[in-house]
Amino acid sequence: MDTDTAEQLEGQIESHDLKLKELFATDPGRAAKMTVSAAGWTLDYSKNLLDTQTLTLLLKLAEKANLKTEIENMFTGKHINQTENRAVLHTALRSSKTTGLIVDGQDVYADVHTVLNKMYAFATRIRTGEWLGYTGKRIKYVVNIGIGGSDLGPAMAYQALLPYSKRTLKCFFVSNVDATHIAETLLQVKADQTLFIIASKTFTTQETMTNAQTARAWLVSKLGEAAVAKHFVAVSTNASKVAEFGINPDNMFVFWDWVGGRYSLPSAIGLSLVLAIGPRNFKRFLSGYEAMDKHFRTAPFKRNMPVLMALIGILYSNGYGADTYAVLPYDQYLVRFPAYLQQLDMESNGKSVTRDGQPVEYMTGPIVWGEPGTNGQHAFYQLIHQGTRLIPADFIGFCKSHNPIGDHHAKLMANFFAQTEALAFGKTADQCRAEGTPETLIPFKTFVGNHPTNTLLANELTPKTLGALIALYEHKVFTQGIIWNIFSFDQWGVELGKVLAGKILKELNNTSLPLHHDSSTNALIMRYRAAQQIVD
Ligand code: F6P
Known about the structure:
Oligomer: single chain
Helix content: 40-55%
Structural class: alpha/beta
Number of helices: 21
Strand content: 5-15%
Bound molecules: 6-O-phosphono-beta-D-fructofuranose
């Protein structure tokens, strides 16, 4: 990050001490000026601690980081994932172009559309009953077995787009290596009507392969070995491992090393979603992504939604020292959206080394968390309103509901609008007094306000608006990574734990192996080993 500009930003924040109440009072046109629309979404960012000078400095950070060039580098397939020497081309997955982007000798668009067409054909066969299970029954259950990017995206989007799904086809998502996850799922499905999708970019991930083997053994115990071909398909970049597992290569849906796991939902990793919502809706989903991609690539930064959200995030992380931001979707269908964003943001920008391999001297990726409104209001909003920490929040809402029952939606949205107003403007001691609040209670009933929020509003949660929303956050995360001068597309931080778990697994399975860990880890393993000997 350009440290001179960052220092100027800090100075600006200290000297100006912005108050939302004053900013709104002095400029009646503030909301109109600070609202942008793109790809079916409107972002009102006026309730942020921003004035013209602050925004100018933030935009300078983007320019100093050569953001424009870096965006082009990503879209055109340069190897910007340098530590893995890979292009980063998830934007190609949702391009309507069918040919013409040659990267590393491959026509990326053509490859993408070949796989999409294979997915659509397969989904149609399942959905129409042309593809039957081994005993001749229709597929009624789909179990996606994957973890991280091979789980969170499809699980989130399936939940989000339930109103568009074929309700006679129920999808389950198994990720945890805890046997409870697969065991409880298998209790809810029937072997002869279940399709398992083994989703793993590498096809080596411990959790996924363990669950896949358990599912396979379960199916074979019910229907016999010959049934596997009709009940197992794979999504992966690793054809040889898929063949080794015993899945027919015809039933494998490929993607490529230039698709990061957490960016892979619009690739074959979205197969369960295509099965659920059908090819037509999946195409609409991709078109939403594409609309936001185009906006990100072409809009001037001061009207560019992902760039503005990224800069606002940097303002709070680096200027105000905020550790976290909350994502608060006012839509029950988006219940998994915060969890999805956790991987997208925290696995991408949870880095402390610059692209030159030096320790960073500023804060990078924030902690992301959240819950759907209004549930959060009765749990953690107290701390946002009256606690000691600054917690910027994104409020995400829709004008129309898929379940227009009574006045539920009006009540939901009344809360949605009320919260950002309350957070921004608070309630003064005088207002409390005017309501007759006893003097002793005034400190407790006062709200200082000035808590910043973004409001993201769309007409309705549709495949298209969901695609655009995901792309918005992807590009926000990308922009921040560029400004922080970190690599957003690797995830070396997950490796150490995996290696140690492999070593410890051997020690748990073979109790005669000596332990050479620290005294804490040794003692904990010994305790576990001892408990295995105890019979109740
Ligand atoms: O947790 C690390 C990670 O590599 C993620 O980045 C990825 O999404 C997940 O594991 C699953 O990987 P795979 O799709 O190869 O099974």
